[in-house]
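User: structure tokens for this one?
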Amino acid sequence: MHSDSTSPVIEVVDSISSIPAQDWDRLAGGHPLLSHAFLDGLHHTGCAAGDSGWTPQYLLLKVNGVLEGAIPLYLKDHSYGEYVFDWAWADAYQQAGLNYYPKLLCAIPFSPVTGRRLLVSESRFRGPLIDAVVQLAKESGLSSFHCLFPAEDEAAEMQERGFLIRTGVQFHWHNAGYASFADFLAGMTHDKRKKIRQERRKVTDAGITFRRLTGDNIQEADWRFFHRCYVNTYRAHRSTPYLSLEFFLHLGVTMANQVLLIIAEQDGKPIASAFNLFNEQTLYGRYWGTTGFNAGLHFETCYYQAIEFCIERGIARFEGGAQGEHKLARGFIPVKTLSTHLLARPEFSSAVERYLTRETSGMAAYIDELNERQPFKT
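Assistant:
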């Protein structure tokens, strides 16, 4: 790969901070969760570095010293924070007396958002990047390489190189050029429209109001309240939150203009909050929490306020996060998601391939069933 000065040179770095932000962001294409500021925050606050089980191993492709390709890559000691579940594969390795971890993972930590994962200035660099990451996994003696929520054409290129494809489903809201929330509701069936109006009325009747904050309007007190809500959500599910207050405060300093923080208030006091990231095309719903139960508060804080924001800003898509069939009745439609997987041992690869064939068939039938239940008028 070093035959002449124009040949791609591959490097692996253990910190994104060693990469100039403008070089990285030029490849990231404006995706807020792929931005240098977001990923660097995860690393330097220790949320996805240190002893977290996420060890950055970013793979870079340079030509004449210029960064032309990159992959956000991690050595993983576990499968937490991924939203594509391979625990059964890890168990099978363990039962065979083999080590599944560490594995090699291309992903945005803790973020089941779709988008580019092979960040390149030109599509011709994708193939060399894929080849380089396969070589890295092989030379490191790792069990497997996984790429989560890539773009469809990236997944297809990996499949051509022998990767297994896994499908999933998420629920995304699409903006059909709505002039208002009422305009959005007008396209829904009578029952669904009525239900949403009832949910919103319960919140209004409880005297709950909302502030939608971006940029300099977000104060440190707002971040602290949101983090308290975020921790409450994890505690309610008897799990440990992945992200620290320090990380969210970092976002408030470095990329507040891409943050939408929604604060619900009752009797002049904050009672719930939702955190979203956005660019001109897409809003990414991420986390929410509350200090207590109020009927309809979850849907209003997480979905309806964010949909209104998208309509006001002309944002085309709202990714509502992982799981959540309840989103269907609230205007989110099922969207197929992808992940790609390469397992080093042929016998395990064959077994996983058979499993994925069955799973993919079942997922296709499930998505068809969901589409039959869409909340919009035909």
